[in-house]
Automatic annotation (TrEMBL):
PROSITE patterns: ZF_C3H1. Gene3D superfamilies: Zinc finger, CCCH-type (4.10.1000.10). Keywords: Metal-binding, Zinc, Zinc-finger. Residues 322-349, 350-375 form the C3H1-type domain. The keyword Endoplasmic reticulum does not apply. A zinc finger (C3H1-type) spans 322-349, 350-375. InterPro entries: Znf_CCCH, Znf_CCCH_sf. This is C3H1-type domain-containing protein. GO terms for molecular function: zinc ion binding. Residues 1-26, 124-143 are annotated as: Disordered. Residues 11-25 have a biased composition (Low complexity). Pfam families: zf-CCCH_2 (PF14608), zf_CCCH_4 (PF18345).
Length: 375
């Protein structure tokens, strides 16, 4: 859920016997709500627009570490909360910040105090999904990992984003979660979208072995992967790690998709590419920049190879066709990731849906409408 803090109106400053005490040092006007938010006597207008030449070097920008302060009323308990600036919302005229707990907040600049990070004028701030100069390159996550661990880590990056979109994105189901909930779709196509975006955003390191990567993916994509799994497997998982020279599955996924899992909507680039994939997934050429269609077909994640009709006019028996006799054990368990491309039979009743992890701990709020099992 995207939480929008709406600071209450700030009362007028107390009167002073010295008229200049309540004057803005930038424009000479009355220094009201913005007074002293940066330890100076500039008003909010000057602080935001940079009328004071010295103000621009102090303005918040993407990548800054900040602390919330100056909030009143119902939001006073947020004062002192540490966060990182991730984007500028020009429509709301507010900064989007992310807390260490993963919560996204929209908040006005006067209520942010810079604690670390780049300090540039707002006009120089990068668009969402781009990298401030102080942050690592998109493919820096691969540094220090063996090739086999790189492949596994990137698959985990995708898998955790699938879970994040459900847990933090308002119940947004994609990939494995959408398929197992009976919502249709294709795990292969959803993962293909991730890979195509990763190439476009330069997240894939040099000399990438796509064939080996897809073998790893085929083995892991049928299983869910939560933040707790990441912490157990890698020791830590924090979106701020990247700003401190480390790696973060969640941060890298934000770079790939161009949006936070809490943004409640896809970036324009991701949406446009997803629409293209829906129309062109059977076109072999769209696989050229992600290892080629042969590598994808080799692990059952690519489109079915076109074949002629069999004698009698019937279609050739292919993956997922009714002609397959051997039952799919993943379908029977309720979580086959290959859909119509599975070469085993999906005949008979589907297995139980995955158990809702929120129901297990008594916190699911969806009741009978939950798309996961409450058994």
């Amino acid at each position: 859920m995207l939480v929008r803090l709406r600071p209450t109106e700030t009362a007028s400053p107390p009167s002073s016997s010295n008229p200049s005490a309540n004057s803005c040092s930038g424009c000479g006007g009355s220094a009201r709500a913005g007074s002293n938010v940066f330890g100076t006597d500039r008003c909010t207008k000057c602080t935001g627009t940079g009328q004071n030449p010295q103000a621009q070097s102090l303005n918040v920008s993407i990548g800054c570490q900040v602390e919330l302060h100056g909030l009143e009323g119902a939001h006073a308990d947020k004062n002192g909360l540490r966060a990182q600036v991730v984007s500028w919302d020009s429509d709301k005229n507010k900064w989007q910040v992310t807390t260490p707990a993963g919560r996204s907040v929209l908040i006005s600049e006067p209520f942010l105090r810079i604690t670390a990070g780049p300090q540039v004028a707002r006009g120089q701030a990068q668009a969402p999904g781009t990298i401030p100069s102080s942050l690592p390159e998109p493919s820096a996550w691969a540094n220090g990992l063996s090739p086999s661990m790189q492949r596994e880590w990137l698959v985990d990056c995708y898998r955790m984003r699938v879970d994040d979109d459900y847990a933090w994105g308002g119940g947004n189901l994609r990939g494995l979660y959408n398929v197992t909930a009976g919502g249709g779709g294709s795990v292969a196509q959803d993962f293909f979208l991730f890979c195509k975006l990763a190439v476009r955003k330069a997240v894939i390191p040099p000399n990438w072995d796509w064939a080996a990567f897809l073998v790893t993916a085929e083995d892991l994509l049928r299983y869910a992967f939560e933040k707790e799994d990441a912490q157990e497997k890698y020791g830590s998982e924090n979106v701020f790690n990247a700003a401190m020279g480390g790696r973060s599955l969640r941060y890298t996924a934000e770079m790939v998709y161009g949006s936070s899992c809490m943004a409640m909507e896809e970036s324009d680039a991701a949406q446009e590419l997803e629409d293209t994939i829906e129309r062109s997934f059977n076109n072999e050429r769209v696989f050229d920049d992600v290892g080629g269609v042969v590598a994808w077909r080799a692990v059952g994640l690519g489109p079915r190879e076109r074949v002629g009709r069999q004698k009698g006019g019937g279609k050739a028996s292919g993956k997922g066709s009714k002609g397959a006799l051997t039952p799919c054990r993943f379908w029977q368990a309720g979580y086959c990731t290959k859909g119509e491309q599975c070469r085993f039979s999906h005949a008979g009743p589907k297995g139980q849906l995955p158990v809702c992890r929120y129901w297990q701990v008594g916190t699911c709020t969806k009741g009978a409408s939950c798309q996961f099992g409450h058994v």
